[in-house]
Amino acid sequence: MTAYYVFATTGFALGPVALTSLIIALTPAITMGWQLVSSRQVAGRDVLGFAVAIVGVCCYLVPLLSGHQQFPRHAIVIAAVAAGLAALVRALFTIVLWNRALRRVPLHAPRVNRLTFLIGAVLLLPVVLIPGAGGGAAWHHLG
Questions:
Q1: pLDDT the model gives residue 128
Q2: Rounded distance, CA 63 to CA 2, Å?
Q3: Residue 51 — very low, low, confident or very high, per pLDDT cuts 50/70/90?
Q4: With helix as H, strand as E and coil as C, how does 41-69 read?
Q5: How many whole angstroms separate alpha carbon 51 and alpha carbon 25?
């Protein structure tokens, strides 16, 4: 999950938020595809979650598509690649959790969450400190 947060934050910090959100919102499509291939069924909550994510993200796209926000091409490419990797990592993590649950392997969620937070904070510190990335970050924001 740390990789997910690093990729997502990089996309949000360096490129258009709407584009990053839209691509990350495709995560349920990846997991639904996996479910269709592996078990031939898809949970209704997954379809509903995907629909809600797409509608919400489309609301963000209106200002971007109307030209109110200007981003250089390299920022758009970086955001698209980072968001695509975040969506893929998140989907793979979900699939791994499903497989562990089927095998009744215990998951130590609090420990996983603490480690994800600590590793992510350390890895994202350079991204946060990049001048001009997402408006920059002041030290009180880092705290």
A1: 66
A2: 30
A3: confident
A4: CCCHHHHHHHHHHHHHHHHHHHHHHCCCC
A5: 9
Helices (H) and strands (E) in the chain, counts: 7, 0
* Pair 75, 15: CB distance under 8 Å: yes
DSSP code of 119? H
Q: Which two tokens stand for residue 42?
A: 């898809």
Question: Is the whole-model pTM more than 0.85?
Answer: no
Q: How many residues does the chain have?
A: 143
Give the pLDDT confidence of 59-103 residue by residue, as tens digits: 766 666 666 667 777 777 888 888 889 988 888 887 787 777 778
Phi, psi dihedrals of residue 102, rounded to the nearest 5°: -65, -35
Phi, psi of 108 (to 5 degrees): -95, 80
Q: Which residues contact 20 (CB under 8 A, 6 or more apart)?
A: 8, 11, 12, 79, 80, 82, 83
Report the C-alpha gap between 24 and 61 in whole angstroms.
14
Report which residue type is found at 99. Answer: N
